[in-house]
Specification:
Blueprint (H helix, E strand, L loop, with lengths): L1 H6 L9 H16 L2 H18 L1
Helix pairs in contact: 2-3
């Protein structure tokens, strides 16, 4: 995820997962322009990713 976000122009200042989550919300917010939808999309995608692992 980090590399995908970096390719989209996001810059990271730490190696924490928290920063990745914040950037994912910002990425989703650019597409939806709705904070609730952006967070819900993140949670749905995270649930799918954890089920694949």
């Amino acid at each position: 995820m980090r590399k995908r976000l970096q390719a989209e122009g996001f810059e990271f200042i730490s190696d924490t997962d928290t920063e990745v989550i914040a950037h994912l919300i910002a990425f989703n917010l650019k597409r939806t322009a709705d904070l609730l939808k952006a967070v819900c999309e993140l949670l749905l995608n995270y649930k799918v990713l954890t089920q694949l692992l």
